[in-house]
Structure formats: C-alpha cells, structure tokens
Amino acid sequence: RSGHVAIVGRPNVGKSTLLNRMVGQKLSITSDRPQTTRHRIAGIVTRPDAQLVFIDSPGYQTRSGGALNRVLNRTAVQVAEDADVVVLVCDARGWTPADERIAKLLPADRPVLLAINKVDAVPEKARLIELVNKATACRAFDEVVPISAKTGRQVPLLLDLCAARL
Ligand code: GDP
Ligand code: MG
C-alpha cells in the first residue's frame, strides 16, 4: 500500500516535531505521484507493509499578514484534499476555536485521525477526556490517538493507524 498523509493543525501544535519523529531520517525515495502546487512532500516512511508519503502545504511557510488565519485554514483544507489520510494535530493542553474551525473544514470523504499531541505536558486524564469530548462533538474522527511527538510516545501506533487507512 502507498498513499499520501496530510499533517494539518493550527500553528505550534507540534506538526513539524511529529513529522521529524515519524520520518526519522531523510530518504531518497520519491513518490510515484506528482506533487501538486498545493502540497509538497515533507517526508516518506517506507515499511514492509506500506509507503507513507507525508505532505504539507508550501503555504504554511509563508506569512501573509492580516488574513493569516484564513490562509492557514484554506491551505490546511487544500493539503487535506490532496491526501488519502488526514492527521489533525491538536495540543493536549486545550481544544481551541482555531482547532474547531480547521476540524470542521476538513473533507468528510476521507479518513481523518485526531492526534492529541503533547500528552507529556498533561498528566491529568480527566483533561484529556474533556478535550476528546469537545473535539468529537464538532466532527467525527476515524481514530483518536494521544501522542507525544517530543518523547515519541504512541507515534508508532499513529503510523500503524495511518498505514491501515491507506
Ligand atoms: P508546528 O507549528 O505545529 O509545526 O509546531 P512545532 O513542531 O514547531 O512545535 C511547537 C512547539 O511545541 C515547539 O516548542 C516544540 O518543541 C513543542 N512540542 C512539539 N511536540 C511536543 C510534545 O509532544 N510535547 C511537548 N511538551 N512539546 C512539544
Ligand atoms: Mg511547523
């Protein structure tokens, strides 16, 4: 199996840290599908059962002043539309209106996994449950996985769940 996985979420939730953690080292293998102008290949994971091509949006790199939030939301949606599986990353310390906006904009016709990152910073289980309740009230997720991109906790599980949805 082979496919594209989009990593989306508001700034600072840990998308880059997660990508680095999942991809580990740079590989010279290229995807058999062309990059669109709306996404770039951020890394590739090759396993015996699957090849996962992680994509993000070039738009994320640019600052565009006043309409920044709108631009970020639009690029998140576009990169999600170019993907086979979408991982929405949020911060375990709290579900915000920005998370909610992005979650609601994501395409309904493909798998969306919620990665609750930075669980190392939230020892209280009740707070995590509260976050899951808020997040799942605003849309359905195919999987909800608490992770720590920083420590690597449950990142292999997230990779398995992505591979299983390709
Ligand atoms: P991005 O803007 O979504 O790409 O977020 P970054 O990957 O740049 O991370 C933003 C900040 O969150 C950085 O200071 C990271 O070190 C921190 N961070 C990322 N993942 C974790 C995590 O699992 N736990 C904790 N405590 N901090 C994290
Ligand atoms: Mg980043």
From TrEMBL:
* Cellular location(s): Cytoplasm; Cell membrane
Q: Major location, coarse class?
A: cytoplasm
Q: Does the keyword Signal apply?
A: no
Q: What GO terms fall under cellular component here?
A: cytosol; plasma membrane
User: Which Gene Ontology BP terms does the record give?
Assistant: ribosomal small subunit assembly
Could you tell me which residues belong to the region G3? Answer: 56-59
Which keywords belong to this entry?
Answer: Cell membrane, Cytoplasm, GTP-binding, Membrane, Nucleotide-binding, Ribosome biogenesis, RNA-binding, rRNA-binding
- What GO molecular-function term can you cite, just one? ribosomal small subunit binding
Q: Which residues form the Era-type G domain?
A: 1-166
Q: Does Membrane show up as a keyword for this record?
A: yes
Q: Which domain of life is it from?
A: Bacteria
**Quaternary organization:** Monomer.
The record describes the protein's role as: An essential GTPase that binds both GDP and GTP, with rapid nucleotide exchange. Plays a role in 16S rRNA processing and 30S ribosomal subunit biogenesis and possibly also in cell cycle regulation and energy metabolism.
Q: Which family does it belong to?
A: Belongs to the TRAFAC class TrmE-Era-EngA-EngB-Septin-like GTPase superfamily. Era GTPase family.
What is the designated name of this protein?
GTPase Era
